[in-house]
């Protein structure tokens, strides 16, 4: 069962004199965090915190959180991980949370008896994401997250079906 609350960023420092914090986003980008009225301080969602304002500063989100009014108060929150509620995010069809992709078994779309490995990480390159496929006893293979390669994802079955590019999984 997918987690209801997902890590979305980490408070790395203070910003200004009003108690704002800079957040390193662990999501689609710094502007993404600005769409939430509430974030959470724990993975269970029992400690909500209201987002009073949000802006982008470079590759960081600058958030004004309820209860933080001075730089000294904000400094005490440095290093905290922030969470968002899955239900608060509207994903487009074919989009997935990275946390849901990690651990999926990667199998051949044409021959499901062929298993390539497990998704161990996802990198963003700008043009498209890249999935890191860990293979037991062999080197990790990077595959592009493009429709020509990714035939389908079944989160309930824990499987990603792929049509690999020629030579992608040739033996080392």
Structure commentary:
Residues 8-87 form the RimM N-terminal domain. The chain has two helices and twelve strands; from the N terminus they run βββββαβαββββββ. It has 172 residues and is mainly beta. It folds into two domains: 5-88, Elongation Factor Tu (Ef-tu), domain 3, CATH 2.40.30; 98-162, Roll (SH3 type barrels). The strands form two sheets. It has a six-stranded antiparallel beta sheet. The protein has a six-stranded mixed beta sheet with strand order 10-9-8-7-12-11, with no helix packed on it. The longest helix has 5 residues, at 71-75. The radius of gyration is 19 Å and the shape is elongated. The two termini are 35 Å apart. The model has no long low-confidence stretch (mean pLDDT 91).
Task: Name the helix and strand elements from N-terminus to C-terminus, one letter apiece.
Answer: EEEEEHEHEEEEEE
Number of domains: 2
Structural class: mainly beta
Radius of gyration: 19 Å
Overall helicity: under 10%
CATH superfamily of the largest domain: RimM
What is the number of helices? Answer: 2
Query: What can be said about the biggest beta sheet?
Result: 6 strands, antiparallel
Note the overall shape: elongated
Q: Predict the CATH topology of the largest domain.
A: Elongation Factor Tu (Ef-tu), domain 3
Mean pLDDT: 91
Q: Ranges with pLDDT <50 over ≥5 residues? A: none
Give the percentage of residues in beta strands: over 45%
Intertermini distance: 35 Å
User: How many β strands by DSSP?
Assistant: 12
Can you tell me the CATH class of the largest domain? Mainly Beta
* Architecture per CATH nomenclature, i.e. the level-2 architecture of the largest domain: Beta Barrel
> Strand order, biggest sheet?
3-4-5-2-1-6
Subunit structure: Binds ribosomal protein uS19.
Main location: cytoplasm
Domain RimM N-terminal: 8-87
Subcellular location: Cytoplasm
């Amino acid at each position: 069962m997918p987690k209801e609350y997902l890590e979305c960023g980490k408070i790395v420092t203070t910003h200004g004199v009003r108690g704002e914090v800079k957040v390193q986003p662990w999501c689609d980008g710094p502007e993404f965090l600005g769409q939430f009225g509430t974030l959470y301080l724990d993975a269970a969602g029992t400690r909500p915190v209201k987002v009073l304002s949000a802006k982008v500063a470079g590759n960081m989100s600058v958030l004004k959180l309820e209860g933080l009014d001075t730089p000294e108060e904000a400094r005490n929150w440095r290093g905290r991980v922030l969470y968002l509620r899955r239900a608060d995010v509207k994903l487009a069809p074919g989009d997935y949370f990275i946390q849901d992709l990690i651990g999926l078994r990667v199998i051949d779309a044409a021959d499901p008896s062929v298993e390539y490995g497990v998704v161990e990480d996802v990198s963003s390159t700008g043009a498209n994401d890249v999935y890191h496929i860990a293979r037991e006893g062999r080197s990790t293979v990077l595959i592009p997250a493009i429709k020509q390669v990714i035939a389908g994802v079944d989160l309930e079955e824990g499987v990603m079906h792929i049509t690999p590019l020629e030579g992608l999984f040739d033996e080392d």
